């Protein structure tokens, strides 16, 4: 493990997701401890996207932005909101020069699949429909996120393809959760890795699926056909249970004719980029912004 990261492991709480309400509070406290982002040069606005039910979003507009990303927070499908994602959404907007539309999707277990994906799809449609008002090019809309949010972004790209929905130009998937089956080497062996481990992944999928069988709409790794999807960037952490399913998904996208950039970050663990003082975290975050900027450039 990267020594700069290892020093912080005792400070990471051992969330187990058996009590989602308590874990949400702990997650919010952890997010509040992250240094505040510099929002100079960003116009930030809270809006509500009409849907059933309506979906809260927070829009981050850098000056002279031309593209947008529908951004989905992490938290194992059960934690996180617009506030916990604020430091990351603001950084993404500033680094990428892209309008970031952060989605406050409904959480499991109170709202299991497909609630979160339905919310995300509603926001994608709204973004495309209101592109002129947002000051963006409707042909330059990406989807992206962290962890469970990245898994939702991958599912969102699949749904947009299958329903002939709004065109998605790019998918930015940071350590995505893609496969409920947990059959890969990393899922079977990473039982005690920091922040995310096998038991936590199991609980996350259990809450999200709510006892219903998984479909490709819920777990993108189950999709038989990955052709026709937008180009992708996939980032994995070496000591993350999701690592191998993410690498496999990247390879399958490539084999389906989809352009992919895959970056495996050595010495890191799931969510370790929250340790902003570490040099590897700074590189990870800068790269996400640079990749998105390039993907939505003319």
Walkthrough of the structure:
The chain is an alpha/beta fold and 298 residues long. The chain contains ten helices and eight strands. The chain has helices spanning 3-6, 20-32, 82-96, 115-129, 131-134, 147-162, 185-189, 198-209, 243-255, 279-295; strands at residues 42-49, 55-62, 68-72, 99-103, 141-146, 170-174, 231-239, 260-269. Strands 1-2-4-3-5-6-7-8 form an eight-stranded mixed beta sheet, with helices on both faces. Strand 7 (231-239), helix 9 and strand 8 (260-269) form a beta-alpha-beta unit. Helix 2 crosses helix 3 (82-96). 50% of the residues are buried.
The separation of the N and C termini measures: 39 Å
Structural class determined from secondary elements? alpha/beta
Mean pLDDT equals 96
H/E element sequence: HHEEEHEHHEHEHHEHEH
Task: Assign a percent range to the helix content.
Answer: 25-40%
Radius of gyration: 17 Å
Residue windows where pLDDT falls under 50 for at least 5 positions: none
């Amino acid at each position: 493990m990267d020594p700069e990261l290892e020093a912080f492991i005792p400070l990471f709480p051992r969330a187990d997701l058996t009590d989602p309400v308590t874990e949400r509070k702990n997650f919010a406290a952890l997010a509040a401890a992250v240094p505040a982002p510099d929002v100079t040069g960003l116009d930030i606005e809270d809006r509500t996207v009409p849907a059933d039910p309506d979906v809260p979003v927070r829009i981050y507009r850098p000056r002279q932005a031309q593209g947008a990303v529908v951004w989905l927070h992490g938290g194992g499908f059960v934690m996180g909101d617009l506030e916990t994602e604020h430091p990351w959404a603001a950084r993404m907007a500033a680094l990428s020069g892209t309008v970031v539309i952060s989605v406050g999707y409904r959480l499991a277990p109170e709202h299991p699949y497909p609630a979160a994906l339905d919310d995300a799809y509603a926001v994608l449609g709204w973004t495309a429909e209101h592109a002129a008002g947002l000051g963006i090019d409707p042909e330059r809309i990406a989807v992206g996120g962290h962890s469970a949010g990245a898994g939702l972004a991958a599912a969102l790209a699949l749904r947009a393809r299958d329903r002939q929905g709004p065109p998605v130009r790019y998918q930015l998937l940071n350590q995505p959760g893609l496969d409920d089956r947990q059959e890969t080497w990393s899922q079977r062996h990473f039982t005690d890795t920091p922040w995310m481990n096998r038991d936590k992944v199991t609980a996350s999928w259990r809450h999200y699926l709510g006892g219903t069988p998984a479909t490709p709409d819920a777990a993108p790794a189950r999709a038989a056909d990955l052709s026709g999807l937008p180009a992708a960037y996939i980032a994995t952490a070496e000591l993350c249970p999701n690592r191998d399913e993410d690498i496999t998904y990247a390879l399958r996208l490539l084999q389906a004719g989809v352009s992919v950039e895959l970056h495996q970050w050595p010495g890191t663990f799931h969510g370790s980029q929250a340790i902003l003082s570490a040099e590897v975290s700074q590189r990870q975050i800068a790269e996400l912004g640079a990749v998105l900027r390039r993907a939505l450039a003319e």
